[in-house]
Design brief:
disordered N terminus; mainly alpha; 66% helix; 0% strand
Length: 164
Amino acid sequence: MLNDTVERVRWKRLICNNYATPKSKFILWMVLHNRLPTVDRIRRWGVNCEARCSLCRNEEETIQHLFFSCAYAAGIWRDICRLMNFTDAGGIYQDVISSVCSQARKKKGKLFVMFFTECVYAIWRQRNNKIFKGNYKDANVVLRDIFFTVANRSNDVERSKLLM
């Protein structure tokens, strides 16, 4: 029971007081609870589908791979980390989540959590676009879209931090 309480508090910082778009927060909540219908989960339900990641075609699609190991996603995440002067946690799901949670308490924390949330949602959207529409945006375009969304949802003080 204590472990569940610790777990709840851990992800709470990423959802509560996060000014990211509601859709982004919902997708992040799904990721944190391992409820996103990634290919590995769909295959466990007995559905026959291609196991490889639709974005990079290199490995099986899991939450770990799709958001933190996939070359497409890793490039976007690396650019966001560079933009926010944040040391990348190495691309391991639990380490990244722990690092983002620890950033939530810092001065630029709210901004960083918003970037992280919008990044997860943007990657999920590109994955779905590739599967259902057959195309997806270049990582640089996605990064600009994330930056634009975060800037629009930020207050003046946070927006000024983006320009630093």
